[in-house]
């Protein structure tokens, strides 16, 4: 392999454990409001979690564990599709990070959407494949207690990658008891999950879970995906005063069927053999990845104040083999590349909040700091069948991002409140370019981000919101010191370390109709630049500023305790400032879901998801078709038969077997049999109808 990592992770975890088991213990999932409110909010249902007075923006909300259990997910990352307007797909093997779409962004693998798990960031900055790379395979969905989400750059508690939005995922503090779950499906799909909890004494609870999954998928070249996850968590104390230590481990490997050219699908054959939607042009694409983490959290809260401290350490490794242009650059050997990422991440968060008065006005203020340091070894190589032919670049990167914030919640009148905040972020990058010394160097960046929220009401169970703020995402550190193109040696310009965004939104949330929650939001967002670091070529792709605006309408109706309906619609207009279209900026997203639960032993969930058309070129001459898919979940309680809490679940994905695509691109590629590159659509199909059966038993 291009860079061999010695088996040091066990020594590393031991060292971190020794360092972190002192006065500050770690990772607990605390009740909603830990970092933004003083009051403890007990979530008893979705209506309570997202009702009047529960948030500071119409586009902010909570997804609880009960909601997550009602609809199937094909991949772990699809839990984010419960966020209204979010669509999660895949353009390669399922071991790779997903493709995310929200608010007119093709977020690629997560560039402008910040995701965390138990307080630890999932986004990877200065990543071998893509900036903000968000691999959700580390997640075990059954362990999730809640997902707190927000859209837009309006919240001082969130910094890097959060311009389009953010999702903070929290595992449960305690499990109800031993759990065993097994699943099976076509194409070699198998999954097992086991979890248990133990009360050590009146103050300590220990629980753990292990997961294994294997799948070949519908692909002509079997995916041979293997995913292994483990979690161990020690919880001390309670919601008012307590701490947690968490250990997590993930390992995955897979073969990948990357996107293929439309011209081959239309032809139906290649080299005298049939060629279809689920074929591949490079059967050796794929990868392997691992992530090991130790995290911890300590909190204390009372009626007047709240303190929260968390720390984390992560060891991450990725080897990824891809081929997107087939034989355009290297006709004799093919265009496969290898991307290597080996890093250690260390970070901490601390916040202090307190109630007070100013001129007789009730206020709650909070100050906080966030620190993240990455030590990264990166490599980009030309390969054939996973064998190295040449080296494009090798870099060692150290980068540190420090954020400080302050915000105050002010209750001006019984019907008017505000949140005023200010955030300061500083980034320091140090790059040692092993292959081109001229690209070595150091750079710094600073950014101030004011935030503001105003909430009026409620009147007739209706609230009105105005939010505004400045946000940012970090650029790849290698681009901030670059002087020479890593392949050609030609002169190139360095890029800024932090790229600012500015946005605002107007929203209304109403429960004026009994049992109905409805929100309507109009938003606008401008980015100083859309440039991204292209991991395939090892350099930054130039771009100009962009503007997006859109309308979101979300509805939840629970006519009774057995029945619930959700209807969401998001419309977006995305343009570069020169008027050109932004490729892959989807203009419409919609979803409908109906859930029937607790009717005798049966529960049913049916979901329709619609991903609209998008331009594939700046002039809008080529567009992708829309994609519409139905998913079904049917659950039967087996308790009367087995004498314990057990159930069997049938999940059907792509219920109507629609022939749609997860993603489309338009770019030049060349087959070995072609004399020149051809501009063409490249697509990755959505999986055909598949069925999975799950048996779960709680002892």
What does this 3D model show about the protein?
The protein is mainly beta and 699 residues long. It has a 22-stranded antiparallel barrel. A 5-stranded mixed beta sheet has the order 1-7-8-5-6. Strands 2-3-4 form a 3-stranded antiparallel beta sheet, with no helix packed on it. Strand 27 (532-534) and strand 28 (539-541) form a beta hairpin. The longest helix has 12 residues, at 9-20. Mean pLDDT is 90; it is low at 1-45.
Question: What is the fold's blueprint, element by element?
Answer:
Blueprint: H1 9-20, H2 46-49, E1 61-64, H3 65-68, E2 87-89, E3 99-102, E4 105-106, E5 113-117, E6 120-121, E7 144-151, E8 165-171, E9 179-185, E10 189-199, E11 204-215, E12 225-237, E13 241-255, E14 260-261, H4 262-267, E15 269-270, E16 273-274, E17 286-301, E18 305-322, E19 337-358, E20 361-384, E21 387-413, E22 416-433, E23 441-456, E24 462-474, H5 477-481, E25 498-510, E26 516-527, E27 532-534, E28 539-541, E29 546-560, E30 563-576, E31 588-599, E32 602-611, E33 614-615, E34 623-624, E35 627-637, H6 639-642, E36 645-653, E37 661-669, E38 678-685, E39 690-698
Parallel strand pairs: 5-8
Antiparallel strand pairs: 1-7, 2-3, 3-4, 5-6, 7-8, 9-10, 9-39, 10-11, 11-12, 12-13, 13-17, 14-38, 15-16, 17-18, 18-19, 19-20, 20-21, 21-22, 22-23, 23-24, 24-25, 25-26, 26-29, 27-28, 29-30, 30-31, 31-32, 32-35, 33-34, 35-36, 36-39, 37-38
